[in-house]
Structures are given as structure tokens and as C-alpha cells.
Write a structure and sequence with these properties.
Blueprint: H1 2-17, H2 22-28, E1 43-48, H3 55-67, E2 70-77, H4 87-100, E3 105-108, H5 109-112, E4 124-125, E5 131-132, H6 153-169, E6 176-179, H7 192-197, H8 200-205, H9 212-238, E7 243-246, E8 255-256, E9 271-274, E10 277-281, H10 285-289, E11 297-301, H11 303-307, H12 315-331, E12 339-347, H13 362-373, E13 379-382, H14 389-403, H15 407-412, E14 414-415, E15 426-433, E16 436-443, E17 450-454, E18 457-461, E19 468-471
Helix pairs in contact: 2-14, 3-4, 6-9, 12-13, 13-14
């Protein structure tokens, strides 16, 4: 949520101080796509069509963005003081999308906070019967008891339903509905376990609460239930075909390979250690949430550079991101679209970085995006602060445009490589279609021809710097 709020503040500031808004930046830094995209999904950008625009401006921007196969989101929010409704602002935008027959992608983050609203009825209860909260995730957010949150379900569901009814009345089809719902609801990290042990309600509801994995299963299970009951069931009641998802909720191999900005280590949790990095045992929240699209996160978190000691240093970024990308691609069924949050420029970077700091280069990031496509990821959802947006969209759009000539492979092919070397080496990803292979390779040591089995046959992988197609012999 911090990232989303940060982006909104910068975006609004830019609108006030300059004529250029996020639409201008995206249009200026990309070109119309003339290649047939077939059944490929577009590029999603996690930013909103500005509400202050006139209908004619919105119409013009939506047309130009559609020419570039870029979809911006419509934000749902609680009305500001003095406003009669926040619904009309959203409808103004999406009535125009309807007119243009463009897909509607809703970001409902603005109306789903807060389940833990700081009210006493959501608090933990200590042995003296007194309420208390966990503020280890944010000073502004009072995380309470996972088992005293259900009274908030109806409150949030009604907010969502009010928008859905208005959209349904206007005959607007919602194709995508998502939230960036993070620092709210039951969470197991930071001081959560310690506080739950002090809560008489948590102890009653979690058997073996002293076992972290049992605690994690109970808390994440409750978090999944909340999302299913309030988000998924409410939206699908009105739009049963809508793709529904949440930031960082996706199928996986049982581990998570990155840490969000608000998460801190919990002593006694279950980890796999790689150098100084802790890969966390992770609950299958996606399975129990009922979401119909996966939204994994592939960001260059600054922590990677500190946690790994690989040389060359760019492998410090590539290794964990490929572990996460592979975890999702390999474990998501083909009927679930994988719409991946991506960002290139270092996230959560401190003002003072060490002298040996090496960011992920543009070239290697471009290769990383190709690896995502060839390991089962269906689309990119770009998140970026406004001051980084121009460079971010250029790379994503470039890869997307280039990939369209390989639509047959990306839409019908089968991923055949899942290996992520434990030490810097060559990473290969590929899609097999009939007797041909579309592949990309990233070399972190002296490039050489490789011999790899594909469908039981030894296949020679030549040294290339761009995606290529070869016959499987």
C-alpha cells in the first residue's frame, strides 16, 4: 500500500505542477503497434486514468493508448469530503471505454481498506481482557486479531457492491478487477506471531500456536478466506467471467524469494537460506482465495544486492527474480492468466548505496522479461513511480512489441526449461511448439554452446544475444 500511495501522491503532484500526466508519458515514450496481437493480453500499467480530464481528453487518451496496446486502470475510491459520490468519476471514464469497446480494468484498492480499522472490535484481547494491536507493519495501521475481523466483511463488501451495481446498471462489462491489498488483514510476519501468542482469541483458534508453520497456515488461511468472501464472491456475483486478482497472490512452489517493504524477519519461522537471503516457506493463499488471475511480483528490491554475494553482481538480481518467476510459471495451471507486476529500476534503494553497487542493466532486464514470457507468464503489469515511468515503459513496450512476431509460440507453446543455476552460469528459457523451439539465454559466465535435453533429445543451444527459433533435432 505504501508503494501505491507513494505513486498516487507523485502523480497528483505532477498533474498540478505540469500539463504532462501519466497518459502523456506513456504515449510519448511508445509507438503504435501495427502487428496483430492475436489473443495476447495487452500491457497493463498500474496507474489510473486521471479523473480531472474532460470526456474528450479521456476519449483521445484511450484511443492513443489502445493503439499502443496499453491499458490503464480505473480507480475506485471513497468520495473525498464535499463530493457526493466517487462512483460517477469512475463511470465517466468507463462509459467511454464501453463506447470504444475497450477492456475495463478496475483497481479497487481505494475502497477495500481498512479491514483492521483500529476499532476495538477488531483488536487482539490479552489475558486481562484488554484490547491491543500490532503496529510493527506500519505506525498508521493497527493490525488486530485475525479471528475478530469478520464484522468488517459486510462493510467492505457493500462498498464494492455499490460500484458493481452502478456499472451493471450502465451495461459496462468489467473484464479485470484487482487490488493492491497488502498492509491490512491477517499477516504472519514482523511481530504478528509474538502478539498472537499473547491473544486469548488467537490461542483458542490456533492449535499448536507455538509451531510457526501451524500459525502461518491459520493466519494465511483466514486471509485467503477474507479475500474469497469479500472480494471474489462479491465481484463474481455481478461479473462471473471477470478476472480477479491481488498484488503478490499467485501459485508457487511453496516458497517466496523476496521480501516486501513492510515485512521483517520473524525468529523461528521456516526458511531456506541461500547466502544471506532467507527464502520463506509460504502458504498457498491463491488456492483458497478463489482468484482467477495470478499477479506475481518481479521487482528489483534493493535487498537482493545485500543478501547475495554473486559475481558478476547482476546475478544477485537475476537469481532470486528467476527463482520467483519459475516458481509461479511452473505451478500455475494454463487456464489461469499470469499477469506479472514488473519494475526495473531498483526498488527501496537507500540514499547512500555502497561503492560497489551495480544495478540491473537495461539489457539484462530486457532478457528477464523475455524469460518471463517463455516460462509461462502471460502479460506484464508495470508499476512505477511517475519519475521513472518513461524509462520503464520503453523497455516493457519494446519487449512486448518484439514478442508479437512469436505469438504462436507464446500462445500455444509449452515451456521446457525450468532450471535456475545456483551459481552464475547460463540461464535458458524456451517454448516448444511442434518440432521448433523459441528460446532466450542469459549468460553470466563465458558464453558457450550448450547441450540440453528437450523431450529426451539432446539439443544444441547456440550462443545468441536475442530470442531465436531453432529446429529440435
Amino acid at each position: 500500500m505504501k508503494n501505491l500511495l507513494y505513486f498516487s501522491v507523485i502523480l497528483l503532484g505532477t498533474v498540478v505542477m505540469a500539463d504532462e500526466n501519466v497518459c502523456d508519458i506513456l504515449i510519448k515514450n511508445t509507438k503504435p503497434i501495427i502487428t496483430d496481437i492475436d489473443k495476447r493480453l495487452p500491457i497493463f500499467v498500474w496507474a489510473h486514468i486521471p479523473e480531472h480530464l474532460t470526456e474528450q481528453q479521456i476519449l483521445s487518451y484511450l484511443k492513443q493508448l489502445d493503439e499502443r496496446k496499453i491499458v490503464l486502470l480505473t480507480g475506485w475510491r471513497i468520495p473525498k469530503e464535499g463530493e457526493k459520490t466517487g462512483i460517477q468519476n469512475a463511470l465517466k471514464i468507463d462509459m467511454i471505454r464501453k463506447q470504444l469497446n475497450l477492456p475495463v480494468f478496475i483497481d479497487a484498492s481505494g475502497i477495500v481498506y481498512m479491514f483492521f480499522d483500529g476499532s476495538e472490535q477488531t483488536a487482539h484481547i490479552n489475558d486481562e481482557g484488554k484490547p491491543f494491536f500490532d503496529t510493527s507493519f506500519s505506525k498508521e495501521v493497527k493490525i488486530g486479531c485475525p479471528f475478530r475481523i469478520e464484522t468488517r466483511y459486510r462493510v467492505i463488501a457493500e462498498r464494492i457492491e455499490n460500484f458493481l451495481k452502478a456499472y451493471k446498471k450502465e451495461g459496462i462489462d468489467i473484464k479485470y478487477w484487482a487490488v493492491d491489498w497488502e498492509v491490512d488483514g491477517p499477516i504472519e510476519w514482523n511481530n504478528a506471531w509474538e502478539n498472537s501468542k499473547k491473544c486469548m482469541v488467537c490461542r483458542k483458534n490456533i492449535k499448536n500456536i507455538d509451531d510457526f508453520y501451524e500459525f502461518q497456515k491459520a493466519v494465511r488461511g483466514k486471509r485467503a478466506e477474507l479475500q474469497k468472501e469479500v472480494f471474489v464472491k462479491t465481484v463474481s456475483k455481478y461479473y462471473p467471467e471477470c478476472l480477479i486478482g491481488n498484488y503478490a497472490v499467485n501459485p508457487h512452489d511453496g516458497y517466496r524469494y523476496w521480501w516486501d517493504y513492510f515485512e521483517k524477519e520473524t525468529k523461528g519461522a521456516i526458511y531456506q537460506k541461500k547466502q544471506d537471503a532467507l527464502h520463506r516457506k509460504w502458504f498457498d493463499e491463491f488456492r483458497y482465495s478463489g482468484y482467477t488471475m495470478a499477479m506475481p511480483v518481479i521487482y528489483t528490491w534493493y535487498r537482493f544486492f545485500q543478501d547475495y554475494n554473486f559475481e558478476p553482481k547482476e546475478y544477485r538480481w537475476f537469481y532470486p527474480l528467476m527463482k520467483e518467476a519459475t516458481s509461479v510459471g511452473k505451478n500455475t495451471s494454463s487456464n489461469i492468466p499470469v499477469i506479472t507486476f514488473v519494475h526495473w529500476q531498483t526498488v527501496s534503494k537507500p540514499k547512500n548505496v555502497p561503492a560497489d553497487f551495480v544495478p540491473l542493466s537495461r539489457g539484462k532486464y530486457k532478457e528477464l522479461l523475455w524469460h518471463l514470457l517463455l516460462r509461462g507468464h502471460d502479460a506484464f503489469c508495470l508499476w512505477s513511480p511517475i519519475n521513472e515511468m518513461a524509462e520503464e515503459i520503453k523497455v516493457v513496450h519494446e519487449v512486448y512489441a518484439e514478442s508479437l512476431k512469436y505469438n504462436d509460440f507464446i500462445l500455444k507453446g509449452k515451456p521446457v526449461f525450468w532450471d535456475v543455476p545456483e551459481e552464475p552460469d547460463t540461464i535458458i528459457s524456451g517454448m516448444k511448439l511442434n518440432e521448433k523451439l523459441l528460446f532466450i539465454r542469459s549468460d553470466f559466465k563465458e558464453p558457450r554452446e550448450l547441450k540440453i535435453k528437450v523431450d529426451g533429445r539432446i539439443t544444441k543451444i547456440p550462443v545468441i544475444k536475442e530470442p531465436a527459433i531453432m529446429e529440435i533435432k
